[in-house]
Design goal:
By secondary structure, this protein is of the alpha/beta class. Helices cover 29% and strands 29% of the residues. The chain has one domain (4-237): Bira Bifunctional Protein, Domain 2 (BirA Bifunctional Protein, domain 2), CATH 3.30.930.10. The strands form 2 sheets. Strands 1, 2, 6, 7, 8, 9, 10, 11 and 12 form a 9-stranded mixed sheet that branches. A 3-stranded mixed sheet has the order 4-3-5, with no helix packed on it.
């Protein structure tokens, strides 16, 4: 079977809500294709449906986002304080709890039709983790998984030293995905002091810059992520 082709777009610095709306539109277009095929009785082979895959890259102005099962207690600022600091806030329809997005962080939003890959959300999440693990390994950073905690960690087995470098939270509708990952590259980590990241107490957050002691070129980093997406998901980015 030939590789799935994935349309790759870099949205640059974009407001969170604008990127969210863009994702919703892409997901909706794919869901409409599936719904129409089901009504016509032509949905027996998902590989024949003209659904399209996308991989979106972007950065956001400072924003906190809360997952659908998240706890507002993990937001340590009032609405007034958020406004004073110029930080936006959104309740979202992704999984996970509270996280931060901001400049110099690589955010990736895969809009994939998993019926053309594997209808296994757990496998999908592990594959995204593997993309990040292999990417940061190229900078000499050993990324790891932490059982029961989606994302990529460093020193997860050393109490008091565990630190998260990449958060992951997704939504899936009719096996179409949206939302995705946020990899801290040259991120200002002070923003995480205002939340309990991912609702996990007593664990730190880190970045590639902090781990290696110097800033990383974001374009080079994105290219490495793309290469690893192609390898792990066995896709062709176009």
């Amino acid at each position: 079977m030939s590789q799935q082709q994935v349309i790759c777009k870099d949205l640059g610095l974009i407001e969170y809500k604008s990127a969210w709306d863009f994702q919703e539109n892409l997901l909706s277009d794919n869901v409409k294709i599936k719904t129409s095929a089901r009504l016509e009785g032509n949905d027996s082979n998902p590989f024949l449906l003209p659904t399209r895959h996308y991989l979106l890259f972007c950065e956001h102005p400072a924003v906190y986002t809360l997952g659908k099962s998240g706890n507002m207690d993990n937001v340590l600022l009032s609405d007034e304080e958020l406004q004073e600091k110029g930080i936006s806030f959104f309740r979202t329809n992704r999984g996970g709890d509270i996280t931060f997005h901001g400049p110099h962080q690589i955010v990736g939003y895969p809009i994939f039709d998993l019926e053309k890959f594997s209808t296994d959300i757990g496998k999908y999440l592990r594959n995204i983790e593997e993309v990040i693990i292999q990417t940061i390994a190229e900078f000499g950073i050993k990324g790891e998984r932490s059982e029961g905690e989606t994302g990529v960690w460093i020193d997860h087995g050393l109490p008091g030293k565990e630190r998260k470098i990449c958060a992951i939270g997704v939504r899936c509708s009719r096996w179409i995905t949206m939302h995705g990952f946020a990899l801290n590259a040259n991120t200002d980590l002070r923003y995480f002091d205002n939340i309990i990241p991912c609702g996990i107490q007593n664990k730190q957050v880190t970045s590639i810059e902090k781990e290696i002691g110097n800033k990383v070129n974001l374009e080079i980093l994105k290219q490495k992520i793309k290469t690893n997406f192609e390898k792990i998901f066995e896709i062709q980015l176009i």
